[in-house]
Structures are given as structure tokens and as C-alpha cells.
Amino acid sequence: MQWTDIMDIAIALEENHPDVDNVNLRFTDLRQWVVELEEFEGDPDGCNEKILEAIQAAWIDERDE
User: Fold this and answer.
1) CA of 9: how far to CAs of 48, 61, 62, in Å?
2) 47-61: per-residue pLDDT in tens?
3) Integer Cα distance of 26 and 18 in angstroms
4) How far apart are CA 50 and CA 46, in angstroms?
5) What does the pLDDT look like over 29-45, one tens digit per residue?
6) Domain holding 38: CATH number?
7) Residues spanned by the domain of 50
8) Is the residue at 59 inside a domain?
């Protein structure tokens, strides 16, 4: 998984952190959780706020389904 695999990351985050308040979270925590995903192979420093916002939005959508 890379930073651009937004939906895959969102699904993995929901599986690994189902009890986290994914609406009110710190991007530093979100970045760390993504980097810690077993399937993640991207550059830990290869994201920006726009990517993290997209991951958060996808995660919220994934939970709402």
C-alpha cells in the first residue's frame, strides 16, 4: 500500500482501529497509524495534509457504510 491507496488505507484503518473517533483525530496520530499498517510500503514522510484529509474522509465514509 502507498499513500495514494486511500480506500485500501481507510479499510485497513477501520479494521485495525474500529473504536477510534475518526472524526476528531490528530493528523499526527493518523499518519502514525497508516505507517504502522502491515501492508503499508510507502515513504513514511511521503504524505501531506491533503492526503491525510482524504484518508480521514474515506475512513469516515467506510464506517458509515
Assistant:
1) 15, 12, 10
2) 999 999 999 999 999
3) 16
4) 12
5) 999 999 999 999 999 99
6) 1.10.10.600
7) 6-64
8) yes
What's the domain count of the chain?
A: 1
Among 42, 56, 64, which Cα is nearest to 6's? 56
pTM (global) more than 0.85: yes
Share of the chain above pLDDT 70, in %: 100
Question: Amino acid identity of 56?
Answer: Q
How big, in percent rounded to 5, are the helix, strand and coil portions of the chain?
A: 55, 0, 45
Query: What Å distances lie between residue 15 and 11, 29, 57, CA to CA?
Result: 6, 16, 16
Residues 6+ apart with CB under 8 A from 63: 14, 22
- Asked if residue 35 belongs to a domain, the reply is yes
